[in-house]
Every structure is written in C-alpha cells, then in structure tokens.
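notes to self, project folder thing:

trying the whole complex as one job this time. last attempt i did each chain seperately and stitching them together was a nightmare. two parts in total, labels are on each line so i dont mix them up again. if this works i'll redo the older ones the same way
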Amino acid sequence: MNEAPLPNILPQSQNPPVYGPIYSTGKTHIKRPSIPPIAVILGVLVILIVGSLVFAANRPKKSTVIPTPTPTVTPSPTPIQTLTPFATQSAFVAFDQSVDTFPATVSGATVSDATLSPPSVDLNLGFQK
Amino acid sequence: MSSDFQTAKNDYLKFQSLTSQTAALDKTKQLLAQRDTLFTTYLLLLSEKVDENPGLSPSDKQTYQQLIAGETSFLTSHAKQIPGVSSLDDAIALSTPFESHYKTLYLTIKKVLASLALGQLANLDRSYQSLISQAQSIISTNASAIPTSKQTVISQWVDQIQKKQQAFQQNYSSLTTAITSLDGYDVGEIDRKYNDIAKGMTDAQQYLSDGASFMKELKQTLKYIE
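result (full assembly):
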C-alpha cells in the first residue's frame, strides 16, 4: 500500500515567507574600544565643573551693599600770617584791643533810654458835665 | 490814687450830695499834689541823668539843668497852692495853669531826653575819634615798616573811616539844631518831631557802626605783612 504522501504543509511559522534579503546570520560583532572607568569619572567631573562655572557665570548677581565712605572733616590749612614789626608794640596792641571792642560798644549803646519815658497823666479833671 | 479820684468824682457827679462833694474835693486835692510830685520827681531823675551823661558838654549840661530847674520851680509853686483849695471850683481853677503849662513842661522833658541821647552819641564819637588818632599815629610812626603795596589800601581805609566820621558830624549838627528848635502846637506835634530826631540819631549811630567795621579792616591790614 502506497500511502499518499503527506502534503508538505508546514505550519506557517515553520516556513516563514521570504520578504527580502535576509541578513546573514553569520553576525559580525563590532568590537567597541573599551573606555577605562577613570576616564569616565574624569569626564563626569569635567562636565560638572564646566556646568557649575557656566551656572555661576549666568546666575543673577546679588545687589551688594557698598559701604559709603564717611566724610571726614579735614580742617583747611590756616594761612600763616606774618605780623608786621610794629604789631607787637604796646601802642598797636592797645589799638588792636580797642578796635575789637568798639563795634560792640557802638551797637550795644542805648542812645535813647526807653526807661526814661515821661509819666502819663490825665490833664482835665473832668468835673464839667 | 487816680482810681480813688475817679470813684469820688463819679459819685459826686451822680449824687451831688455834700458828702460826695467833700470826698471829691479831698481826692482832687490829692490828685493835684500827686501830679506835681510825680513830675517833680521825674525831673529830678532827668537832672541826675544830665549830670552823669559823659557826652554832654558843661555848657549843654548847664542849659538843660536850667530848663529842668524852671519846670521844677513851676511845679513847686503850684504844689504850694494846693492846701489853700477849699472848693471844687478852686481845684478846677488851680488845675488850669498846670494844664495850660503842660505843653511847655512836656517840651522841656523831650528836649532833655533828646539831649541825653545826643550826649550818648557824642561819647561814642569821642571814642571813634580817639581810634582814628591812634591809627594815624601808628601809621605815621611806622610808615617805613609798612610795605609799599599796602600803603594805598591803608590810606583808602583811613579815608573811608574819616568819611563816616564826617557824615556823623553833619548828622550830629543837624540833630543839635533840631533839638534846640524843637517845638510844636501840641504834645502830638512835639512827639512827631521828637521821633524824627530819634530816627536821625539811629542813622548817626549807624555811621559810627559802619566806621567801626572799617576800622577793623584797617587794623588787620596794619597787623599782618600779607
């Protein structure tokens, strides 16, 4: 008995359709260069430092109170005046003193003495109706 | 005392009674005596002020003392008549000479007051002239020690100081004339003229005050070389 050959029917999953070129299954692994961990750490540090510097540069500046300088009174230099040879003589010293006191004597003089005002009286006796 | 007189007078004018009349006469006599005493005492004060005034000349003092003595004499004579007053009519009659003489008395008082003020000005002027003399003496004695560059300035100050003294002197002469001729038809006019004299005295005092400040400048110029 010859049995009829079984149809070569495979589940679809076992016969995947061919849609296009199929990459070679023989994969070629690209070998990436290995980065040492210390370099990674340094890189992170550099990024942090640069970032912090950029942040610090762009941060709005706080208004700083600048202390104003206190004005100090400095006495103006008194010009040194040289006395004339006769300024120390007794006659000039007496004149000097008299001239210094005279303006006050003039302005302080009470030429008209208000305390000497004449008495005020009613002259008319006023008996006439 | 014056209020007692007013009360007694008002009572008499209101009631016309003998009692009120007697009281009014009594108070009127007291008032007349008090008026004389008040002015006599005031004139005595003026007399002392004239005596002690340093600026009045002896002849001026004598003139004003005579005026005061004349008024005192009038008041003393008037006061002696008061005890003889026996009625209100007598009192009114005795008051009349005082009232009519009052303008003369007031004029004398104002003249004396003005002359006292003038004496004060004369005293200030005396000190001013003394300072001018001192300055001129210092300048002439030390002429060789004064730098040439300063001599012009010094002579200009001296000139200004003397001009102020001349202005004062002119004012003073006018005031003397005004006081001598002071008069008026009543007390009000006398007061107005007296006030004009007082203003003239203020101006005269100002001349001396200006001159005093010039004197300080002169002194500073003389005192220092530069």
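what i see at first glance: Chain A has a mean pLDDT of 77.
need to look closer tmrw
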